[in-house]
């Protein structure tokens, strides 16, 4: 590990000759080989992060690999919420603290408590950021629902599609899929979709011999604005 500001060497990995043996022990620890003494899964995941970064087996990418190992063990242990927590973002917000957590542990006879405490704080911050993100999205969704309820000129099928499109930005709609969902004729479904496309809420594209419709990239902004006209052909 090198300080990029002045080039000072901060960490020298253990001898490469014994790396295969040390990695074998790391893999055994990662795969819970032997269950004594008990180590809480979150602490074990953090220790795996620290361990791989300390071994520094690669010329580049050690930090990314160590964080990936942390995520892997957390998910393996049933902490599914970690799939949505950006711990890497939190760690890299304060790189000096991240680096010092390693150095304090190394200079204090390998006491990993420093790194565990720091990592737990970062994990808590990552969960707080996730909560803030979900709350913001809930407020946006509530606002969209309110705006759609007051939208005149659209029938209940079109409003239902817009609700779905707001939650699924990558959704794709066809006249047949819309007709099947609402048990209506293809002609009625075609009218619904082309009307939404003309209003700018859907983008109309040709796929083979049929037209498909996808949510506008700025759908939320268009709903807030009320309507945004688009250049769409009323093709059948």
List its salient traits:
single chain, 236 residues, mainly alpha, Fic-like fold, Arc Repressor Mutant, subunit A, 2 domains, two-stranded antiparallel ribbon, 10 helices, 2 strands, disordered C terminus
Query: Residue-averaged pLDDT, rounded?
Result: 84
What form results from the Cα inertia axes? elongated
Q: What is the H/E order?
A: HHHHHHHHHEEH
Terminus-to-terminus distance: 63 Å
- CATH architecture level-2 label of the largest domain: Orthogonal Bundle
| Helical amount | 55-70%
Biggest pleated-sheet summary: 2 strands, antiparallel
**Model regions low in confidence, pLDDT < 50 over at least 5 residues:** 227-236
Strand order of the largest sheet: 1-2
CATH superfamily of the largest domain: Fido-like domain
How many β-strands, per DSSP?
A: 2
C-alpha Rg (nearest Å)? 27 Å
> Beta-sheet strand percentage?
5-15%
CATH class of the largest domain: Mainly Alpha
> What is the SS-derived class?
mainly alpha
Number of helices: 10
Instruction: Quote the CATH topology of the largest domain.
Output: Fic-like fold
Q: Any idea how many domains?
A: 2
Question: How would you summarize this macromolecular structure in one to three sentences?
Answer:
Helices cover about 60% and strands about 5% of the residues. The chain is mainly α and about 240 residues long.
């Amino acid at each position: 590990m090198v300080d990029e500001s002045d080039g000072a060497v901060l960490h020298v990995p253990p001898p490469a000759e014994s790396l295969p043996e040390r990695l074998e022990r790391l893999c055994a620890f990662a795969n819970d080989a032997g269950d004594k003494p008990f180590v809480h899964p979150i602490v074990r995941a953090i220790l795996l992060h620290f361990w791989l970064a300390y071994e520094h087996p690669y010329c580049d990418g050690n930090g990314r690999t160590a964080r990936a190992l942390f995520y892997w063990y957390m998910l393996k242990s049933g902490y599914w919420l970690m799939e949505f927590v950006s711990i890497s973002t939190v760690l890299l917000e304060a790189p000096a603290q991240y680096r010092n957590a390693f150095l304090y542990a190394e200079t204090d006879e390998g006491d990993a408590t420093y790194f565990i405490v720091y990592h737990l704080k970062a994990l808590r911050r990552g969960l707080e950021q996730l909560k803030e993100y979900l709350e913001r999205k809930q407020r946006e969704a509530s606002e969209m629902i309110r705006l759609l309820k007051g939208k005149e000129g659209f029938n209940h099928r079109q409003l239902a599609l817009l609700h779905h499109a707001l939650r699924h930005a990558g959704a794709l709609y066809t006249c047949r899929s819309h007709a099947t969902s609402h048990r209506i004729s293809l002609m009625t479904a075609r009218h619904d979709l082309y009307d939404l496309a003309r209003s700018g809420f859907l983008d109309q594209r040709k796929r083979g011999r049929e037209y498909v419709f996808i949510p506008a990239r700025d759908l939320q902004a268009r709903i807030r604005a009320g309507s945004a006209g688009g250049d769409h052909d009323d093709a059948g």
